[in-house]
Amino acid sequence: MADGSSETKSSNQMWGGRFASGPDAIMEEINASIGFDKKLYAQDIRGSIAHATMLAHQGIISAEDKDKIVHGLDTILSEIDSGAFEFSRRLEDIHMNIEARLAALIGPAAGRLHTARSRNDQVALDFRLWVKEELQMTEKALTGLIAAFLDRAEEHAETVMPGFTHLQTAQPVTFGHHCMAYVEMFGRDRARVRHAIEHMDESPIGAAALAGTGFPIDRHMTAKALGFREPTRNSIDTVSDRDFALEFLSIAAIAATHLSRLAEEIVIWSTPQFGFIRLSDAFSTGSSIMPQKKNPDAAELVRAKTGRVNGSLVALLTVMKGLPLAYSKDMQEDKEQVFDAAESLELAIAAMTGMIRDVTIRADRMKAAAGSGYSTATDLADWLVREAGLPFRDAHHVTGRVVALAEQKGCDLADLPLAELQAINSAITDKVYGVLTVEASVASRTSFGGTAPSEVRKQIAWWRARN
Ligand code: ARG
Question: pLDDT confidence of 7, banded at 50, 70, 90?
Fold first, then answer.
């Protein structure tokens, strides 16, 4: 950073009493976090205003000093908002950048703000506020994605497609049902987000360096002012805890994994070979050499972002795993991981929501594929159990022979003549043809959570009431 080298090596104004000289340039470079923690400026200022207000209320600082501090902090907020604020790497992090500016603006009263506080509880507060807001945004974004899926599911409650296991055609399902599988996944992600918000809704400020303080502070007052349910209960844990960041990253990693699976399906489905969907121009790109191509770049990038998010989770877990209580500077490495994961996740959810809303569903192609690969073989076996009284294992065997026959003749199950079916098992009647179509197969699966359009519509209604 340019500002580091031009400044003289004077000792630090925050702890200069103990130091004869300032840090080496390399020390400054490895130590500074301002390059990324400036993102926390609004939270830092909000926290400081709540802290100063509480100090005055408790008679720890005067009302005049508090007013000067609050006014100064408001000024700094607008300076940073407007881009006029000059961040300095020599001042290490966002906390000291703001405090130094406050001193320049209001003089000695600024020095009273840090009473009964440490950067350890200050950074825990700022970062927690930031993560909490990010989780609230994630909750909204997931709700938007779920809404997009509910609309597509409703539209395609009857659209038949092949259901897969091992990516081999298994049984016919509806596209609406497939969409609702993703609603369940993103619904769980959202529930995890809500739980995490509740979990981390405790205010760290007032834990001070690690042991609390002898000043008569009121932690319930600051907790309330900052929108937390209550203060944290153990000051040592408070300054050494980054579970809220780890929870955010775990939730992000699981959600990103869901997005990646969806992205993978979009990539496969949009190939000419599958041709189940056509991506909108808005969410695809062309090739500079092959004029016929339409590439699913957005889906591919969503798939790739998952690697970054998972990496961030592993990185922070690894940073934290060896740390003795309480605060260690290692913990400064928490923020970039969370910021990067948050940006990736936000973008991935937004891109997916757009793709799902815009994508063209090629129902004809889905239906044709749904009937291939003897996908109604289970329906034949079930029919033999129901109508001919065969035990399922025998029905399975009979059906296997029917499939082998169809394969040998190169036709579908429904194209086999009745006489040839009866030669395999005499209990088969012409009623069997009623269950061999993909529509009949899908309509029959009315068990709770099954693929029948009637059942899928029930699940859509359940989710609509909760979205
Ligand atoms: N920049 C630091 C961080 O992000 C703030 C806390 C520093 N505390 C300390 N005792 N050095 O973790």
Answer: very low
Say how far apart CA 329 and CA 74 lie, in whole Å: 29
Q: What distance in angstroms lies between residue 24's CA and the mean position of ligand 1's atoms?
A: 18
Q: How many CB atoms are located within 10 Å of the residue 114 CB?
A: 16
pLDDT above 70: residue 83: yes
Q: Probe ligand 1: pick from 12, 28, 93, max atoms within 8 Å of CB?
A: 93
DSSP assignment of 253-281: HHHHHHHHHHHHHHHHHTSTTT--EE--G
What was the pLDDT predicted at 13?
66
CA distances from 420 to 374, 396, 408, 459 (A): 17, 17, 13, 41
CA 332–ligand 1 middle distance (angstroms): 6
Pocket lined around ligand 1, Cβ cut-off 6 Å: 33, 37, 93, 119-120, 123, 327, 329, 331-332
Q: Which residues are catalytic?
A: 166, 287
Nearest CA to ligand 1 atom 3: 332
pLDDT at res. 22: 79
Supply the pLDDT for residue 1. 38
Q: Given this model, what pLDDT does residue 5 score?
A: 43
pLDDT of 319 above 70: yes
Please report which helix (H) or strand (E) contains residue 361, including its range.
strand 360-361
Residue 3 has what pLDDT? Answer: 44
Give the position of tokens 């040592």.
236
- Residue 16: is its pLDDT beyond 80? no
Ligand 1 centroid, distance to 99 Cα (angstroms)? 14
Q: Give the strand pairing for 230-231 and 202-203.
A: parallel
The model carries a pTM of 0.92
pLDDT confidence of residue 151:
98
**How close is the Cα of 44 to the center of ligand 1, in Å?**
13
The Cβ of residue 90 has, within 10 Å, a number of other Cβ atoms equal to: 23
For ligand 1, atom 4: residue with the closest CA = 332
